[in-house]
């Protein structure tokens, strides 16, 4: 079979919490320039990508696909097992790619399965796969990845799953002892907690304690090696339990999906166990399913041994997307442009042809560049946009970008002197909405919950901010006083320093700073912590203030205050304060659950028997005390 040739090499990457692996696919299945970089050697995703690209010979790369150990939902990606976070569209622009596809690593691995041959997998146990049947996939590494494939016509649909977080259930006394040990530190014990690299270490320590012996300070690779060499009884037992629990997890996945096409095991641990895994307790435990033992015994289980399986899957997804774009490129608005081409004037037709040929570039190009490239006037560009039912160029770009990426893009559209009042308003609102969506994708549920818990139990709550962000502190003081929490806002650095010097261990300080780099605020954060108070920081990621805080609430929207007043970023900080206020209100007044802010204020007033008119509020309209908070946090991990 002749290899499919590409117009240009395609960059593929597999990003985990420890290593970032890269390769160029020169033609279908031909992976060259394979490299593995340690994530800790690079401050961010862009630096690692740039380092790999800079080490390549002079090549034109326009398409890239990245598999990452993280859920991918929208434009912002924030890794759960590492500190990297980035905007997909921003990275595409900075790296100069036409296409940058980011997918979950196990989604990519699942899509590799149909392309694997007999030499790329090793069957463990019996069973025979049914053709065109559901396939299951799981694999322990730094966590427990879970996915699956559903046949659909001539192709497959991959499942985005967090099945590794299903609850662990012990099967015997030894596993009950392990569960009791883990319960000391974790209220909920998932399969991922045990069937992973860190989980193997937990199992080892639990078994040592159960035997009344002290555990050695061993990492997962050391435990595995000592077990395979049969030099440590507890390590041998730990690896045996690990394989048993993986068998149970695999069987659960098999009956959940009805995976008659087989269960595949990937990840970074099992493929390295070699022959040991084939004779381990994995398959026996897989088939121990009570009344369904015969059902699962007919399902084959395989270990993935292919060296570049994740690259193969990422390549498959990228190839499918590029073919789709070539056959029916992009969004509904591009299809609309093709339909109306016969009705366009010659000048408008030139704009249409330019957009169809350079859709992604048009999303970010200013009107002057679009007009120049199409050899038309700027009013012609506007007329073209309005001919498609758009209010103007900014509205057209939002619709175009949404169709190309599947999400509303997180980009900033520049306001110009040529904008009409309507276009100006649309741009301002669009920029604000995009920024809010970006912050929503950055939210970390655990951090928000910790902040709410600290505030809810604080004896005194102080808010510090300087300059334009003083209104954030003042607004916060007002909100939390109404919730019955002693609160004060300080916007003068001298008062902040004096107040921080008399804080106590039961007090909480919330510091709002866009850059997170102001020396005055860094100093009071240190003073507060020296006094034992807890510090909550609302600031840009990886800033000095974030590093000094007990709880970090990330808002990555830094505005240049030397050229204009910060507008969007202050709104974002106010919304974070609203989230905290809503969370505390729900904890303190569950009877107000589901009420709108104004209604909640009235109920709180009635509860305190202090009837008065509802005060004007600065909260975002439509934010309720219940479900909106859940919706805002449901996208974070």
TrEMBL record:
Q: Read off the CDD domains from this record.
A: ASKHA_NBD_GLK, SIS_RpiR
- What EC number(s) does its UniProt record assign? 2.7.1.2
Which EC class is this protein assigned? Answer: transferase
The record places domain HTH rpiR-type at 331-407
Single GO MF annotation: DNA binding
For the keyword Nucleotide-binding, the answer is: yes
Ranges for region Disordered: 591-637
Cellular component GO terms, alphabetical: cytosol
UniProt binding sites for ATP:
13-18
Any idea where the SIS domain is?
A: 451-590
Q: Where in the cell is it found?
A: Cytoplasm
Q: Which InterPro entries match?
A: ATPase_NBD (IPR043129), Bacterial_glucokinase (IPR050201), Glucokinase (IPR003836), Homeodomain-like_sf (IPR009057), HTH_RpiR (IPR000281), RpiR-like_SIS (IPR035472), SIS_dom (IPR001347), SIS_dom_sf (IPR046348)
Protein's GO biological process: glycolytic process
Q: Which family does it belong to?
A: Belongs to the bacterial glucokinase family. In the N-terminal section; belongs to the bacterial glucokinase family.
In terms of NCBIfam families, this protein maps to: glk (TIGR00749), PRK00292.1-3 (NF001416)
Report the protein name in the record: Glucokinase
Query: What is the taxonomic lineage of the source species?
Result: Bacteria, Pseudomonadati, Pseudomonadota, Betaproteobacteria, Burkholderiales
Protein's gene: glk
